[in-house]
Amino acid sequence: MIGQALAAVDAERIKLSSTRAPYWCLAMVVVFGLGVAVLLGWLLSGGYADTASVDTRTIDYLVGVNQFGVAVFAIMAVLGVTTEYRFGTIRPTFAAVPRRPLVILAKTVVFGGLTFVVAAIVGLLGVVLGQALTGNGIALGGPDTVRQLWGTPVFAMLCALIGLSVGALVRHSAGAVAIVLGWMFAFERILSVLPRIGENITPFLPFLNGWNFLSGGDSTFHWNAYGSLAYFAAVTALLLGTAILVTSARDA
C-alpha cells in the first residue's frame, strides 16, 4: 500500500515536470509576486520608519502572491486533473493505480507541496525585497509578518487543492477554471454585499475566510483569524473528500 502510494506520487511528479504549463504558471507567480513587492517597496521608499508600520505593511508586499498567485496555483491544479481527462491519459493512470483515491491523493501531495514551497519562497523574498527597498531595514519578527510568511503558503496550498477538487469533479478545463475563478473573485464578493443577507452569509464564505485570516481577523466573522483558517481548511477537506468519492464511483 505504502509502496503503491509512493509510486503514485512519483508518477504525478514526473507528469507535472514533463509539461510546460506548470513552468509558465510558476514563472507568472514569481514575476508578479516579486514584481508587486519590489514596486511597492520602491514607491514607499522612506515613507515610514517605525517597526509597527513595517510589520503591518507585510500583507501589501504579498498581494502578488495571495491575490494573483493563488489564482494561478488553483488553475495549475485544475489543469493537472482536467488535461488527463481531455487527452485520455487518465485511463492508463487508473489502470496503473487501480485504487483511484490514491491518484487524487498523489496529486494532492504533488500540487499542494509544490504550491506551498513556491509560495513560501516567493513570499519571503518579496517581503525581504520590499522592506529592503524602503531603506528602513528588514524586520521579519513582527506578529503580522510571521503570520503572513507561513499563512500565505498555507492559504495558497488550500486554494490549489480546491482547484484540484473542482477539476476532478468537473473534468473540463474551461468549466473548472471558470468555476474556481468566479467563486474566488466574484461569487463570494457579490454575496457579501447583498442587502440584508450579505452580512449573514459573509462569515461562511470560504475564500473570504481565507483572506480574513491573512488580514488578521475582522469583526464581520464569527471567529478570529485562526478560526477562519480552520474553517477554510475544513471546506477544502470536504470538497477534496467529495472529489475522491465521486472519482472512485464514476467511469473515467
UniProtKB/TrEMBL annotation:
<feature type="transmembrane region" description="Helical">
    <location>
        <begin position="149"/>
        <end position="170"/>
    </location>
</feature>
<keyword id="KW-0472">Membrane</keyword>
<feature type="transmembrane region" description="Helical">
    <location>
        <begin position="64"/>
        <end position="83"/>
    </location>
</feature>
<feature type="transmembrane region" description="Helical">
    <location>
        <begin position="177"/>
        <end position="198"/>
    </location>
</feature>
<feature type="transmembrane region" description="Helical">
    <location>
        <begin position="229"/>
        <end position="249"/>
    </location>
</feature>
<feature type="transmembrane region" description="Helical">
    <location>
        <begin position="21"/>
        <end position="44"/>
    </location>
</feature>
<keyword id="KW-1133">Transmembrane helix</keyword>
<keyword id="KW-0812">Transmembrane</keyword>
<protein>
    <submittedName>
        <fullName>ABC transporter permease</fullName>
    </submittedName>
</protein>
<feature type="transmembrane region" description="Helical">
    <location>
        <begin position="104"/>
        <end position="129"/>
    </location>
</feature>
